[in-house]
Structure formats: structure tokens, C-alpha cells
Amino acid sequence: SSGINAEWLLRPGGNTGAIERNTLLDFAAENFKDSNNIAVVGVGLDPENLSGLADEYLWSLEGGSATVANTTWTGMQESQIEASGNGALAMCLVEGAAAGSQDALVLGILKHLAGAGGSAITHGGSHSQLISAAAPYTQSPFNTQCVNINNVNTGMFGLSISAAGEEIGDVLKSSYGVMIGLNDGVSDQALETAKNKLKLELLSAYESNLAVRAATGLESIAAGSPSSASQLCGAIDSITNEEVIEAAKKINSSAPILVSYGNVESMPLQRELQ
Known about the structure:
This protein is of the alpha+beta class. The protein is 43% helix and 14% strand. It contains ten helices and five strands, in the order αααββααββαααααβ. It has helices at 2-10, 21-31, 47-57, 102-114, 129-134, 168-181, 188-205, 209-223, 229-237, 241-252, and strands at residues 77-82, 87-95, 143-150, 155-164, 257-262. The relative contact order is 0.18. The model is unreliable at 1-11 and 118-125 (pLDDT under 50).
């Protein structure tokens, strides 16, 4: 609800000029409780000014922020939701890593080794391992990419796929095979390329003040303190092929969840992916 209320407060139009100090105080008291984990982040602000603003508007946090309870990954679940149309979406996910951790960076490299980003593919060319593996099985536009989602004390890692309903099963199976293949490691050149892609991804995010604030807040809550761009790049450079192989084996032996939406008649079951 706080996100909805915040959008209401900031939306231009009828509220422009009508937001007063008491409105902000009421909003903070209602939505920022000591049961939340909260980081106060400012970009370009003097630390004393930021501290003063936090003391003024976030008095409801005087009791301190409670520790977030550890989550439990259950896995081995699947859900298929039928919908009209020919297309289908699917995600196959396992437990990932928390923000600010070394494991999150290793999984970031795995993501780029397999293939991340990009739009639907309609013709051949130089593509990721995932795209190249699935292309022979498709006649319609499709996309398959690896995702690495990091949260406060856990994360999600796996595949995100969109394809024609009759082809999504083959795209998923070929993509799953690519992930299994990472258990054998990669060449030094492929590893270096993936490291550079991850560093570019992180550095690009630091070009936006909004992204900097979000990353700083998340890392402060998850790891106790944020990391600079140079620290992150140094940590990425230090990752070895052995660490990548260990992470791949852990990911590929974990209990996944498999969800799909759309034309799901050709979706395989989890046991058919093994």
C-alpha cells in the first residue's frame, strides 16, 4: 500500500502544491514501521542534512528496524495457467542469492554466460547460448534469457521464456540443457566476456541516481553497507572458473519452481526436464 500511496503523493495534477509537511509526516508514520527493514539513502546530500531529514520525518522508526526473518525456499512446484492466444510465457526458477553477496555476483556471471537481455528473435545472427540452442526448434519469434533476481536475504535465479505455445516446450528443454552444460565450466575467454558484461551492467545502473539509491538501500539492508562500483568490479574480476562451476552445479541440483501462462498445452512437466 505504501507504493500506491507514494504514487498518489507524487503524481502531478490535483496534488501539485498541496503536499504539506504534515502530509509527509502522516504518510511516514503510517507506512514506515519498525517492523520494516528500511535504509535512508541520499545522493548529493550532506550526511548531516540527510540525518536531520530522517530524524524529522521518520520518527516512527525510533525503535529501530526489525531483522527480516529468513525465508525458506520450498521448490518442486509447478503451475500452468491457460489463457487465450497462441503465445506462452514460462519461468523456471531456483533459489538464488541475497543482494550484496559474493554468490550474487557469481550468479550474475552465470546469467551472462547463458544469455541475458535482448528482445524477441525473428532471424539468425550472433546470439547467446540460450538463443542459439533454441533457434533450431522454432519457426516463430521467441525469447529465452537467464534472470538473476536478488533480494534482502535470498533471491531467484533461472530462465524466463516467451514463445509460441506449440514451441515453448522445446525452447524450455533446450534452454534447460544449456544451464546443465555450465556444470562443465567454460573457457577463459567466455568467462572474461561474461565478467565484462556483468561489470557493464552494474556500471550502467550507476549512471542513474534512481538506480544508485535503490542499489545502495538494498545492499545496506542486506549486507550492512553498500559497495562502490570499483569494489564490485574488483570482486567480479576475482571470481574463478571453479566458483562458476560450483555455483552451476548447486543451481542445477536445486529444487525448481516452474510456472507458465498462455497456450500451455505443450509445456513439459518438471520431471520431463531432468
